[in-house]
Design brief:
Blueprint lengths: L2 H6 L2 E2 L6 E2 L4 E3 L5 E3 H4 L13 H21 L9 E5 L2 E6 L4 E5 L1 H4 L7 E2 L3 E10 L10 E10 L24 E10 L6 H10 L7 H8 L3 H27 L2 H23 L6 H13 L1
Antiparallel strand pairs: 1-2, 3-4, 5-6, 6-7, 7-8, 9-10, 10-11
Helix pairs in contact: 3-9, 7-8
Bound molecules: zinc ion (ZN).
The site of zinc ion has 7 residues, from helix 2.
């Protein structure tokens, strides 16, 4: 179908079978359609058009379970049990007692279902900012600034498989969420209070990656991670040196990749502090879904 005939044609939503016009639907990867209303049953933090109807169908079931989890485990809680950091329409609400958090955004507010993220799915978090490209009057350095949370996720934002994930609990759908705490600002580090709560949860003292690695190698779990990473790096370095001596370009590339993998493993092992929240999150899910 051509662009214009596609634009003006009515199509049926593959989930509710309603006939919908171009402005109230999205095309999925397998060229089926989802209507605006059915999209409200999906996560605010995925782009549905990157997936096919079977995938989204499973995702909608997952979200139904999350809504139940929220209704049973979060809705009845007293305000004092939630740490709320919201600026304007965006923010994050931590529920430490169940090891989970909720992300607030304008898109999320329009959804039919609530969604929670587990602390043990977090791989990393940091400040992010987007440089302002326009230079008009009143334009500050950044168009937005806030906190970025990266999950261990087997798929990337385009729906492709991500093989770089190892260890720890996975998030099945969301690789990354950005929470803009300020728009049009000169401050590169907005959302400091929410960041401080994350730092506390994850036992991270310093803001810099190198600083964190140095400071965090103190506990027994961390020592183990360090030891393993140390052994692996020595092996990888050895291969790098051997390939360099042989002037073996292919071997050199392999060895470099090996070093990269060692660095990734070390990073994941070092920062898998979320694991300490696994059992309370598991218990909350069990209460909500099994009882
Ligand atoms: Zn529909």
């Amino acid at each position: 179908m051509g662009f214009f005939s596609d634009l003006f044609s009515k199509q049926n939503c593959v989930f509710c079978e309603q006939q919908v016009g171009a402005l109230s639907r999205k095309k999925l990867k397998d060229k089926t359609y989802i209507c605006k209303e059915c999209e409200k049953n999906c996560s605010a933090y995925i782009d549905v058009s990157k997936f096919d109807n079977g995938f989204i169908s499973n995702h909608i079931e997952y979200m139904k379970k999350h809504n139940i989890l929220y209704e049973k485990e979060v809705a009845p809680l007293d305000k004092s049990k939630k740490e709320r950091f919201v600026s304007g329409w965006d923010g994050i609400i931590f529920v430490d007692s169940i090891g989970m958090f909720e992300v607030i955004s304008p898109k999320y507010n329009k959804k039919n279902v609530k969604e929670l993220f587990r602390y043990d799915q977090i791989q990393d978090f940091n400040y992010y900012n987007v440089e302002n490209t326009s230079t008009g009057e009143g334009q500050k350095k950044y168009s937005e600034s806030g906190i970025e949370i990266i999950f261990r996720c087997p798929i990337d934002e385009n729906g492709w498989t991500n093989n770089q994930v190892n260890g720890g609990r996975l998030h099945p759908y969301v690789p990354k969420i950005r929470i803009p705490f300020e728009k049009n600002t000169d401050d590169a580090n907005c959302g400091g209070l929410a960041k401080a709560h994350l730092n506390k949860l994850f036992g991270r003292a310093s803001e810099s990656l190198l600083g964190s690695i140095k400071e965090d190698f103190t506990g027994t779990g961390k020592e183990r991670a360090q030891f393993k990473a140390g052994v692996d790096s020595v092996k990888a370095l050895g291969n790098l040196a051997k390939a360099a001596i042989r002037k073996d370009a292919e071997g050199l590339d392999d060895a470099k990749n090996e070093m990269k993998n060692v660095a990734t493993d070390m990073f994941n092992a070092t920062f898998n502090f979320g694991a300490r929240y696994t059992s309370i999150a598991d218990e909350a899910e069990k209460r909500a879904w099994e009882e």
